[in-house]
Amino acid sequence: MNKETERFYLDEFKKNYPHFPDGSICPDERPDFLIKCRDEVIGIEVTKIFRDMAGTSQSPLQQREAVRNKIMQKAKEVADQRGLLNAYVFVHFDLNFCCKNSEIADMASKLVLIAEQKFQRSDSLEFIRPHEIEIAGIAGLSIQKTKGSSFWKNPLASFVPTIRSQQLQTILDEKSALTGDYRKKCNKVWLVIVMDRFIASSYSLIPDEIDKIYYKHNFDSAFLFCYTRYDEQKPPYLLQNLSDAVS
User: Fold this and answer.
1) SS3 assignment for 97-150
2) Are residues 86 and 111 in the same domain?
3) In a domain, 56, yes or no
4) pLDDT of residue 24
C-alpha cells in the first residue's frame, strides 16, 4: 500500500475506535505511523489482509483478478478496433481461472470472436455456455446489445469465504518479527489489519468468535478492521493476546 492508502485506512480506523490515542499522526516507515501523544509515542503498522481461495500452487486471488481485468481491457480494445460488437459482454470465469501474461492477448481475441458470432445472430440477451466456448476456464459469456462501443466485465463470484484465525495468526507472526525495530521509535506498538469490503480479494466473512480467540503476537494491541459501507461499519475487533491469558 502507498502512504495515501495507509492514511485513509488509519483515518477510518480512528473514526470507529473510541480509544484512539490523542496525539499528532506522523507518517513514518517501520512502523507506518507514529502517534505523538503528550506522554508517549505509539507506533501503528497498517497492513491489508487478502484471501486466497486457491491452493498454494496457484496465484493469489488478487493476482488472478488483475489478469482477468487485463483480459477484459484487451478484449474491449480488440472489439472496438474491429467495430462489429456494440454490446455489454460479461465473461464468467471459473473460480480458479488463471493464465500467463503472454496468453492475455490471444485469450482476449478468442473471446471477441465468440461474442461477435453470437452477437450477429440475436437481438436479445444471450448466454453462451461452456460447450459453445471451448476455452478452458471460461464458464460462460452473457451478451446484451447496446449503443456505442463494447463494454466488457467479469462479474465477481458470489461465494465469499469465512476468514480463519490462522490467516490472522500468519500476519501476526510476520509482523511480530519486526516489532523490535518498531520499538526503537515508540513506547507502544499497534497493528491494524485491514479488510476492505470493496476489494474482492480482501473481503471475507468474519465469524462472531473472531475476537474471542487468543492469538500469539508481540504487539501492545492488534486489531482487525473491516472497512465497509457507512451504514454497516462496525468498530475494529481487538485480537486478544495469548500472553494476557496466561499472565
Assistant:
1) CCCCHHHHHHHHHHHHHHHHHHHCCCCCCEEECHHHHCCCCEEEEEEEECCCCC
2) yes
3) no
4) 97
CA pair distance 211, 207, nearest whole angstrom = 9
CA dihedral 210, 212, 216, 221 (to 10 degrees): 90
pLDDT digits (tens, 9 = 90+) for 163-177: 889 999 999 999 999
| Rounded Cα distance, 78 and 144, in Å | 18
Residue 169: C-alpha distances to residues 54, 93, 165 (Å): 19, 31, 6
Q: What is the pLDDT of residue 220?
A: 97
Q: What is the pTM of this model?
A: 0.64
Looking at every residue in the chain, the average pLDDT score rounds to 88
- pLDDT band for position 111 (cuts 50, 70, 90): very high
* CB distance 39 to 23 below 8 Å: no
pLDDT digits (tens, 9 = 90+) for 8-34: 999 999 999 999 999 999 999 999 999
Residue with cell 500452487: 57
Residues 146 and 98 in one domain: yes
CA geometry: angle 204, 208, 212, nearest 5 deg: 115
Domain residues for the domain of 14 are 3-51+161-246
Instruction: Say if residue 106 is in the same domain as residue 225.
Output: no
